[in-house]
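Board notes (copied after class):
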Amino acid sequence: KEHKFITSLSHISFGIYLVHPALIYMIQDQIPNYYQSGLVIMPLMCVGVFLLSHAVIWVGMRFKPFRWVC
């Protein structure tokens, strides 16, 4: 039995790869002391950017013009 999240991830992994730098850039400017508190911020950023990238591409794939990304 295959897991729905893993199957979804396999279909949109290239889109996540394309979107994540823009999300990191946007989020990085909003966090005060981003570079000083790396031990706390970095793990949260990794998980947050991954989940947000997944959501952005998943929603984008619902619209025909954006389906070419994946």
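Comment from the instructor: The helical segments are 4-30, 38-60. The mean pLDDT is 83.
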